[in-house]
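Sequence in, structure out. Go.
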Amino acid sequence: MLERTNEASGIESISYQTLSGLSYWAGFVGVWTIIGAVLGIIGSKAGMVANPFSILGAISAIIVLVMGLKLRKSKKELDTFIYSKATVSLEIALDSLRYYFRIQGVLIILAIVFIVITLVAMAVMGSLMVH
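Output:
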């Protein structure tokens, strides 16, 4: 593993190993996120025949698709930066990652809210059943 030093500062000091690793994993996770989203969209569409609320699954799958596309864009821009050193490519890549993490963060917050609501509802329903 490379040691990090404070000798150089700026974009030039970012190692090839760090950028290529980030590019690889952004691409890998992006591809599998897109595959999962497409399968989710197909499943939701098929499920709409039996349950019209499957539209919610399709909406969440579309959000996941956008996240996967952002990761793929980040990979592409990181690769461009690695070979051309065009700082605008690095900025676009990091902005795509920021967008990805923002969506992921909002989804985590929503999941926590729904868990809390469910736990409160279960506690209320449980207390009503006892009386």
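Check: The mean pLDDT is 90. Helices lie at 16-47, 55-84, 87-130.
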